Amino acid sequence: MKHTLVVGVDGSPQSRAAADWAAQEAVRRDLPLHVVHAWLWQPLAAPVVQDRDTEARRADDVLKEVEGELTHRYPELDLTAEVLRDAPVSALLHAAKEAETLVIGTRGHGALVAFLLGSYGQQVIGAAECPVVSVRSANGRPAAVPVEGEVVVGQQGGVQESTEVLRFAFEAAAARGVPIRAVRAWTPPPVYGYSPGSMWIADQFGGLEPYEKAALEQALEPWRVKYPQVEVVAHVEQGSAGHVLLAAATDAQLLVVGRRVRDSAVGPHIGSVAHAVLHHSACPVAVVPHP
């Protein structure tokens, strides 16, 4: 199912917004959409009275309701749906193994968003093997973004480190027929970080900022060739990567960032840049894992 978009729903307005965005994306890219709902029978202690069959029917109803809404709005959509009998995080991570992209919902943005993103979403984004798109909700539909807005992508490191992130961003921009803004933020190294070797490299380019611009152009070059129809704006700016990206994405319709895949004793991490934009970006955010 690698050429399938997968969206997780739970009956909330936020997950309905995610399903609607995923359906639009699937139609735009001519891909099938698989809607999943995680449900696991977990009986509570007395005096709470539960009925397994009733709870199972509710899980099925959640799925049927979303399926009906999407079929009505997008009759051309190739749609399948499934109840996954597992806990939410493990169910979504399992679904992500077979997905091209996983889509989840997020509530609002602002001071409370760190809480509203929820531990489920953060765990899924930090551990999924495929890109995960977090979609904000406005009355059960995706929050409004400029229809002709750019796709903004954060680029860092070298060519190989950027490959998957830029691939996702260029594919998204090409499917939408909009420009892509590739952003590389940089900060001067601390005094103890300077070395004769690093200064020699910077001097070859006439300073640190020209070096950063050259590094961005080198990463973009193969994608400019592969997607000649996509207008590219190269954006290099000194400052915190999170702040620079959020400012650049003010009028964007999609923001794409990377997440380095690495083992950690305390569990998966989404990284400081992804964390910042997920919590404060008004537009959908795609987090793409990379080596």
TrEMBL record:
Alphabetical list of Pfam families matching this protein: Usp (PF00582)
UniProt superkingdom: Bacteria
Record domain UspA: where: 3-136, 158-289
Family to which the UniProt record says this protein belongs: Belongs to the universal stress protein A family.
Protein name, entry field: Universal stress protein
Organism: Streptomyces katrae
